[in-house]
Amino acid sequence: MQSEAEQQILESRTFDEIGIGETSTLTRTLHPDDIHLCSVMSGDVGWSIVEPEIGHGGGFREFLARGMWTSSLLSTALATQFPGPGTILVEQSLHFTLPVSLGDTITLTLTVRQKFAHNRHVVFDCSCANQDGCEVLRGSVEVLAPARKYRTLRSAVPAVKISDRHARLLTLLERARGLPPIDMAVVHPCDRESLKGALAAAEAGLIDPVLIGPEAKIRAVARDNDLDLGRHRIVNVLHSHDAAAMAVTLLRNGDAEAMMKGSMHTDELMAEVVRRASGLRTSRRISHVFVMDVPTYPRPILITDAAINIAPTLEEKADIIQNAIDLAHILGVPEPKVAILSAVETVNPKLQSTLDAAALCKMADRCQIRGGILDGPLAFDNAISLDAARTKGIRSAVAGQADILVVPDLESGNMIAKQLEYLANSLTAGVVLGARVPIVLTSRADTTETRMASCVIAVLVAHANRKKQSLPQE
N or C: which end of the chain has fewer CB within 10 A? Predict the structure, then answer.
């Protein structure tokens, strides 16, 4: 009897060496990435998208899709174990007796039933059983066995990382499940993406949009793109500047709990937000936070400020950090690790960002910044890579495992965020904090996916604000 664990060298069994009744086993566990890989290879979304009621009822989609993963173990066993390298599959006949579910551990057993000397064919009985000993597959396979021995070192299987941004969006949407939608002022949604994003967030139950802009233009965009405005409220104004002013008025009056930018310039919107007499200012500096789910990083990472503050001062950076820490708390990170970035990880009087980083860390020691663990200056590599931090001899509770990246200025932050989004396939959300309400500050290039993700963050912040306001004042 052979099993995969015993083989470091792959060595084939020739036809003459194979005996009737010999067996071989192979054990594998079905993981989510296996399902996604099968979907990519086959082009069949049934591998990864199966209605729960179909699966529980023994429906054919799950029965077939996950069963076919089980049958693929046959190829692995035949090619690598018994008979091994040089084996050619000729024919197979399989019967799927039970569904296979994620997390099931399947053991395949091959048993030699017949040999045909005239063509070197060998027939195997095959059976697969799950961890409970229940048979999930049975059948037979016929192969052409090797005529001579092949011997080779087992090659390492390359690591494959599934980067499914839609799946990550669904995971993020789960965070808002059960929360009632919030009223969101959508400012000048006069192009396809901004209107579509708002309506998609409404359909997902995240927001009740208040569409503010020229009504005729909004309806024309909806009509031209087959978007259903339903019964969503439209506040008719002449142009984008009026839309921004009206949105701020609604928010100040309590008629909405959040704001989302549509097809207008950021400066035009933010000018109304920061007006001292009539805007949405608080005592805290207004700043922007990107929330990024990067496939190659083990946790979501927050990047600030990459959209509002161009070259923040030390005092402004303290507020920027506090805003990000408060958001991390809302997202369920009780004590976020904050990496204050520079080009180097040592204090250098010629680099102002390193001096600011050192001062900010001391401010945290003196409780001028609360709720997080700060370290800096740190270069980007040793902020997010434990290996890089160890190589440089950095001992830190933050290095290599940062939850928040604080950038020196807007330019560097914007570049980091865009690189992660476009080169690393990050799911990206963004929100402005420090104002009376969360503001979804989208880019004109942002997809519906990004807008929906940003709405999730805004919803979580709005509900946290509700809870905070309901608490008794000290």
Answer: C
b/e code 343-369 from CB counts within 10 Å (16+ = b) = eebeeeeebebbbbbbbbbebbeeeeb
Nearest to 111 by CA among 100, 122, 119: 122
Evaluate the omega torsion of the peptide bond into residue 305 and state whether it is cis, within 30 degrees of 0. Answer: yes
Please give the CATH superfamily to which domain 165-470 belongs: Isopropylmalate Dehydrogenase (3.40.718.10)
In whole angstroms, what is the distance from residue 376 CA to residue 196 CA? Answer: 41
Identity (one letter) of the amino acid at 25? Answer: T
Per-residue pLDDT at 380: 96
How high is the mean pLDDT in each 10-residue block of the chain (474 residues)? Answer: 61 88 88 71 53 40 57 85 88 87 87 92 92 90 89 71 76 90 95 92 94 95 93 93 93 93 91 89 94 91 95 96 96 96 94 96 96 95 93 92 96 94 91 95 85 94 87 58
Residue with tokens 């399902």: 35
Domain boundaries, the chain: 2-152, 165-470
Q: Which residues pair with 292 in a beta bridge?
A: 301, 428
The neighbour count for residue 228, using CB atoms within 10 Å, is: 9
Block residue for tokens 């929330």: 291
Structure tokens that stand for 376 in this block? 């800096």
Q: Are 442 and 469 in contact (CB under 8 A)?
A: no
List residues bridging with 235 in a β-sheet: 212
Equal CATH topology for 2-152 and 165-470: no
